[in-house]
Amino acid sequence: MIKRLVSYLKPYQKRVWIACVALLVATQAKMMIPVIVAHFIDDHLRPRDVSVKVIWLYGIAVLLIQLIAVVMQYIHLVSFQSIAQWAVKQLRIDVFGKVQYLSQSFFDRTPIGTLVSRVTNDTENVNSLYVYVLSTYITGIITVITVYISLFMLDVQLATWTLALLPIIFIVIYWYRKLTANLYRISRSKLSEMNSKLNESIQGMNIIQALRQEKRFRKAFTTANNEHYHSTMINIKLAGLMLRPAMQLLCIFAIVIALNYFGFTSLSTSVKIGEVFGFINLLERIFEPIYKMMIQLSQVQNAVASAERVFDLLDQTNHSPQQLGHEQPNIKSGRIQFDNVTFSYDDKNTVLKDVSFAIEPGQTVALVGHTGSGKSSVINLLMRFYSPNQGAITIDSQPLVQFDERELRNKMGLVMQDPFLFTGDIYSNIRYHDDIITDQQVLEAAQLVQATPFINKMPHQFHELVGERGTSFSKGQRQLISFARTIAKNPKILILDEATASVDTETEESIQVALEKMRAGRTTIVIAHRLSTVQDADVILVLHRGEIVERGNHQELLKQQGLYHKMYCLQNHATLHHAT
């Protein structure tokens, strides 16, 4: 994982080296000040060999070195922060881009809140990882090295003795990291779970309140929140025990060793006061960066857990079905054929069993059946959202898997039962960033689906703003706009998945008139529960438990006295009863 994180820094290697050099100069400059002060005390102050020239010389030297340290520190801090922001910016782009090409089955089993948490919260934590590693850890390591260089400049023997502290410090860091690593994974997992529950509850708030499920959702959220709280509190307690107290104890221990060393040395020979001051001062500077490193270690552990989750998403291999082969077939006539197609979403429960049918160019074929019979699964396979487990699907006698994604999406128009609008305006939702579609085509598409009358009544007409998911429009209006968006592409194959279920009867009749004009030269597949909307279809396929049990036109199926006849009678009886 660290190797992959470092790979995002490769484009900025030059800036990294500049920052490291600036850090090295800044740290060494700051470490030189105690050494200079020590020499001033021992060489001038103690023997009383002080003059104005000497005072000015040492004062200017200290100020100059401090100025260099400040400038270099600014360069390295800004450089490290900039590098971290650039790297995480690219990581976010990669994660979001990866999500765009994952299969529908991945989204079927992954909560939306979890994905949002990975793309936003987790990548932001990775940014913290870069900042802490680049800034705090590199700074700490270089500081410790430069401090020891300065210590050896003052007293080689004592500096050698203090090296024994480093293994103890590393042991403390190792155990702290080991004890907190899993706790942070739990913490991040529970935070993601809370995001998921929050997203689900907000989206379904009307259902929650209607069914009075507020207490149950609050209880589920509270459970995840408590688990997150407990894992965080354990981390806080470990930090309180092993961070500053442990480092302060080691620091005092080091100072005691130094004082004892100088004390016993003074019994046999003279000891320089400046050297004592410089040594004690530098010893304290060793532990400050190490303490900061250990404080940030908790944040690094948190960020590492987030990085693991981000890379787990990047490593997903469950992509949308891709084109096989290098051929570039085109959809010309729009002939569709399913040949013994079997499909399961989870490889356990089969939703389509040996389904075979052919749709000739220009035909309108309706798929009807009870809920769960497999109608939408047929559409999902035809749109290549999923791949069949067995069998083959062809368009114009060419295997579906050989078509380029762009060709499929340009020549196949899909209108779903639940319309989805994007933030923008009506015009942008119909055109939807397709430069090939002209302004005139947008107007013609809206007029064809009978959307122009209600659009022209809007204050800004086609430039009327559309909020998130188009909630400011009625469901019927949203459906008409999404219908126009599909028609504007002038598709060769038109797929309507309960497309008229959200509009009133008068509007539906208008759309049916428009559909009559659109069907000329196009292959049309209609999924419908209301059989009255598909009576004029050329062929009606009746599905039951994943199998085609009946096929024919409306009159032929009524004569068979089968499932279609039963459904038709039930719907007509319900309609007559409602009218009565």
UniProtKB/TrEMBL annotation:
One CC-aspect GO term: plasma membrane
- The name on file for this protein is ATP-binding cassette, subfamily B
What PANTHER family does the record tag this protein with?
ATP-BINDING CASSETTE SUB-FAMILY B MEMBER 10, MITOCHONDRIAL, ATP-DEPENDENT PERMEASE MDL1, MITOCHONDRIAL
One GO molecular function term of this record is:
ATP binding
**Which keywords does UniProt give here?**
ATP-binding, Membrane, Nucleotide-binding, Transmembrane, Transmembrane helix, Transport
Q: Where is the ABC transporter domain?
A: 336-570
**Compartment(s) where it occurs, according to its Swiss-Prot or TrEMBL record:** Cell membrane
Q: Where are the transmembrane segments?
A: 54-75, 129-152, 158-176, 246-264
List, alphabetically, the SUPFAM superfamilies matched.
ABC transporter transmembrane region (SSF90123), P-loop containing nucleoside triphosphate hydrolases (SSF52540)
Q: Where is the ABC transmembrane type-1 domain?
A: 17-302
User: According to Swiss-Prot or TrEMBL, what is its membrane topology?
Assistant: Multi-pass membrane protein
Q: What Pfam families does the database record attribute to this sequence?
A: ABC_membrane, ABC_tran
Q: What organism does this protein naturally occur in?
A: Marininema mesophilum
Q: Which residues form the signal peptide?
A: none
- Which SMART domains does this one have? AAA
